[in-house]
Amino acid sequence: MPRPPSTHPTDGELEILRVLWDRGPSPLGIICETLRRERDVATTTVATMLRVMLDKGLVRRKQATRGQQWSAAVTQAAAAKSMVGKLVDNIFDGSAGRLAAHLVEAGQLTPAELAELRHLLESNSTSRKVAKVRDESTNRTS
Fold this sequence. Notes:
Blueprint: H1 11-23, E1 26-27, H2 28-35, H3 43-56, E2 59-63, E3 68-72, H4 76-91, H5 96-105, H6 111-141
Antiparallel strand pairs: 1-3, 2-3
C-alpha cells in the first residue's frame, strides 16, 4: 500500500523554497540558475518539482509577461514550525523539551545561541507568571 503524500517539503523542495524566500517571485530560469550555484540541476527536473510543490500548496504560479513567476506559498517560519513539529513528534515522542535537551547535550549550540535560549526561557517564564497573576486577579473579581 503506498504511503500518503506528505505536505512537508523534501530536501530538494526546500532548496527551491530557499531560493524563493531569498529572491522573491522568480521565473524557472532564475530558480535553476540560482540552484546551479550549488549543484547541477536539470531545468526539466526543477519544473517537475515546482508542479509537485504547486499540488502540495508550497508554491504559487502566476502568469507573467514572459513565462510564469513562481513564489513561495508558505513562509519560512511556517515551514520550520511544521517540520520541527514533525521532528518532535516522530523522533522525540512529542516532547519539544527532549529536542532542546538533545541540542544542548550534543553541543550543537554556540555560546551565543545558548544565551539567546536562556533569554527566551526567562522571557517566556516571566510572561507566564504575569498571565497567571492576571488570570488569578480576574477570577477573584468575578
